[in-house]
Amino acid sequence: MNDWTKNKDKENTKPAQMNEAVHQKDSQSLLSAESSGSHTERDKRQVAAEVPAVSKAPARSHWLMIGGLVFKLFKSVKVLKIALVGTAFAGWGLIFNWQFAAVLIIVIMFHEYGHVQAMKKFGIPTKGFYLIPFVGGVAIGDKAKSEWQELYISMMGPVYGLLMTVTFFVAYLMSGNNFVGLVASISALINVFNLFPIYPLDGGHVVKSMVFSGKKYWGILFLLLGSALGFVISLKFGLYFICFFIVLGVLDLLFSWKELHHEEKISMDKYGIMFSFIWYIATVITFIGIILIMASSRVPGTEIARIILSS
């Protein structure tokens, strides 16, 4: 009886012990979890304390960011070109009127496009062209490797201008529209001005490429004879402005002889020089002829080109 009671008591105490063990285990787990949780929270607070606080940027920083974006935008080539076109249009529009300003911009852009296309033909890297308000335009690219490339690139601006001028001239003859005739006259004036034999105009590049191709003094003699002939012809027709620039061109070439004499470029042969000379003179004569014809047509505004060349 006592043994049975003892065994019974032992059996009764086992569940209690097991429950107590489980309870202790759960308590330990809970304490461990709480300890872990508190440790995690403590770590987070420690990390947060170690990381420097990021102060809110002042309101003006937003304006600085906007200013930076605007600067990058205007630094873009295309945006700069558009801005220059707009500035040129506004400037010439204030001086003359918007129609005349539009004609000037179209003529100059077509002229400069000819230079860019010539550079691309020879594989010369180019950044295109830019309009310069109140001045004109400029095509940007690497240097030519030969005198022929230099001459060809310089001539293609006026050649593109000649195509435009002749197109409007023929259109005027067929339609009799005064505005079309005025465009032809303005285009001829701008392009013939660029062919004046003085650096850095296109004509200055052309003449120097011809004269310095052989790198001999007979080039200077040839230039002087050609300039004298051009001076006499211009004087006979009362084109005193051209006479003035012929003299300037000769002086400019003589003063820069020593400097350009040492340029390392592939020279043209005598046939290339002769062809280039004929090409240059024929282009100039064509422009002047259109100017004189349009001036005699009494179309309003076309007399301006004749007056400038005769001044």
From TrEMBL:
GO biological process terms held by the UniProt record: proteolysis
The cellular location(s) given in this protein's UniProt record come to:
Membrane
Tell me, in one coarse class, where this protein mainly resides.
Answer: membrane
Q: How does it sit in the membrane?
A: Multi-pass membrane protein
What does the record give under GO molecular function?
metal ion binding; metallopeptidase activity
Sequence intervals crossing the membrane: 82-110, 122-140, 152-173, 179-196, 217-233, 239-257, 277-295
Pfam families of this UniProt entry? Answer: Peptidase_M50
Q: Which cofactor does it need?
A: Zn(2+)
GO cellular component, as recorded: membrane
Q: Domain Peptidase M50: where?
A: 100-174, 178-212
List the biased-composition ranges (Basic and acidic residues).
Answer: 1-13
Bias kind Low complexity: ranges: 27-38
Please give the residue ranges the record annotates as the region Disordered: 1-51
Q: Does the keyword Signal apply?
A: no
Tell me which UniProt keywords the record has, alphabetically: Hydrolase, Membrane, Metal-binding, Metalloprotease, Protease, Transmembrane, Transmembrane helix, Zinc
Statement: the UniProt record of this protein carries the keyword Transmembrane: yes
Q: Which family does it belong to?
A: Belongs to the peptidase M50B family.
* Protein name per Swiss-Prot or TrEMBL: Zn-dependent protease
